[in-house]
From TrEMBL, chains A, B:
Residues 236-311 form the DHHA1 domain. It holds the Pfam family DHHA1. GO terms for molecular function: nucleic acid binding. It comes from Tepidibacter formicigenes DSM 15518. This is Phosphoesterase RecJ domain-containing protein. Residues 17-157 form the DDH domain.
């Protein structure tokens, strides 16, 4: 609580803020950033949100009303830089100049790997999401500050980072937060529609092609492939075919699900998911990757065929 | 509240109970039945759960510790019959004799179509689930009665009937209930694993085949097919390939998703889902079916080809 109070004091005692987050922005990242942005605006602060990356279209409902700046567009001084949902200062999605020139860096995050790189740090890896921390922070500043607009942002981060309350990071407090946000009459239906009912046609088509490659090995391992050919056939880009690996893991009896995603003829991204007892981060590390115990990945320079053989051989040692 | 108090009085003043629910048991149905079963046991009541149907295997974690009776196995009198999660007395999944011989019928449900067929009725169609009503009922009897075991049952019904808190029936109170159940250290991970990470291999294969049939008509309608041939090829039964229609609806720009599921060469089950403005129950009714505004269905005796033509023509009038 003292850590949070120090951050509140710093916020209340200053006028100019730049908010930023990590590369490849996701729901929690944009939700917490834009939620805090609106909160600071309501406190009559000057605040700029900077993000030197492209933004996911399915989250455009969050940012259509605000200007998101690129680093080169801004020229202010005497500002506090607030970093949200980013475990690593090097991954902060703004220029080195902005990082260097701030009068203070406040680091608010829920990633276990965060090394407290800020001048003030609030890193709670038991929080479901950075949005849950921002919810507490704003409530601690003023119980009435969170309105429907801020609520929409925070709810988006909460449900994307908890997988609709399915992941194990879902806390009792996450549900209290959700309950209170619903009372603000947030646009829950619209959020759900934007997040989950808005798939590009070719996304569904390439999912079909991917599932047709399904193979089960010794009943414990399930693999699916996404080849360069499939990307070409379905006119969909590498980054837009995401989240398929769960279909492999979620098969009865399967412990490890693997997606082999071919980026180039000799470059394959491997996603590994386990259900109960296999530490897939250990497997990913053997191939130069990493991640979490039940969700990891690595990228291997070799043919799809060879990569599959190597990885499956390794996974077989663990199931 | 008076209605609930009358039910509580009736429960506290009696010793013998039979609990039953509707045919084709689902998560809310079994969750509320078994949750109340354990609750009544803790109140030292004699209680029997009767269900004259086969039970879904993915919910076996709920019922593996209790005996579920068939109507013909029981022979008691002076009992109260409690009907849970069933909108229609004719769909109650026990014998006519059991219905006829009870000294009182208590009807607890959340379906809008429920016609209050009980001697005592608690029908709240604003409740997310019957489990949410049982949660309130048990808490009103004794704040300490709900333990981890009962919590597992009630949480299962809550998340299956709200689609992991995504459907519009999710209330602020649903989240409070979820928050309180998490405090009881329910087996959330295990519930999620059983419900969503336990698909038969052939289920995933036939999903792939189904997605390969995807067609989009005038950018507003998406159709997918499940043919007799696919069922045969993938060795999966008609009832076990469920829930695919959402893949059609959840495409960007699509308003109506349709699944054509061929039961016999001349018999097709049609599932219709809309996203925003089309009342698909109206369309289903034209073909002798019915359902909800955004989720309806009908079964048509004709070839797959003809059924598709007829239904698409009708849907085109509405988009």
């Amino acid at each position: 609580m003292m850590r949070m109070n120090n951050i509140i004091k710093a916020i209340m005692g200053s006028d100019n803020f730049i908010i930023t987050s990590h590369y490849s922005p996701d729901g929690d990242n944009l939700g917490s950033s834009i939620g805090l942005y609106y909160g600071l605006k309501k406190l009559n602060k000057k605040v700029i949100f900077v993000l030197d990356d492209t933004l996911p279209k399915n989250l455009s409902f969050l940012y259509e009303d605000i200007k998101i700046y690129k680093s080169e567009e801004i020229d202010i001084d005497d500002y506090i830089l607030i970093s949200l949902d980013c475990g690593d200062k090097d991954r902060l999605c703004c220029s080195e100049e902005i990082k260097k020139n701030c009068k203070m860096l406040i680091n608010i995050d829920h990633h276990k790997s965060n090394d407290n790189y800020g001048d003030l740090n609030y890193v709670d890896f038991e929080a479901s999401s950075t949005c849950e921390i921002i919810y507490d922070l704003l409530n601690n500043i003023d119980k009435k500050i969170i309105d429907k607009k801020i609520g929409n942002c925070l709810y988006t981060g909460l449900i994307t980072d908890t997988g609709n309350f399915m992941y194990s990071n879902t806390n009792s407090s996450s549900f209290i937060m959700a309950s209170n946000l619903l009372k603000l009459e947030i646009d829950k239906e619209n959020i759900i529609k934007n997040l989950y009912q808005n798939n590009p046609l070719n996304y569904v088509k390439i999912l079909g092609d991917t599932l047709n490659t399904l193979e089960v090995i010794e009943e414990k391992i399930a693999t699916i492939d996404l080849t360069c050919e499939m990307f070409k056939k379905n006119a969909i880009s590498f980054n837009d075919a995401d989240g398929f690996v769960n279909y492999a893991r979620d098969i009865k009896g399967v412990e490890v699900g693997i997606l082999f995603k071919q980026k180039e003829s000799n470059l394959v991204k491997v996603s590994l998911r386990s259900k109960s007892y296999v530490d897939v981060s250990e497997i990913a590390r053997k191939f130069g990757g990493g991640g979490h115990i039940k969700a990891s990945g690595c990228t291997i320079k070799n043919s799809l065929e060879n990569v599959k053989e190597m990885v499956i051989k390794e996974v077989l040692e663990h199931v």
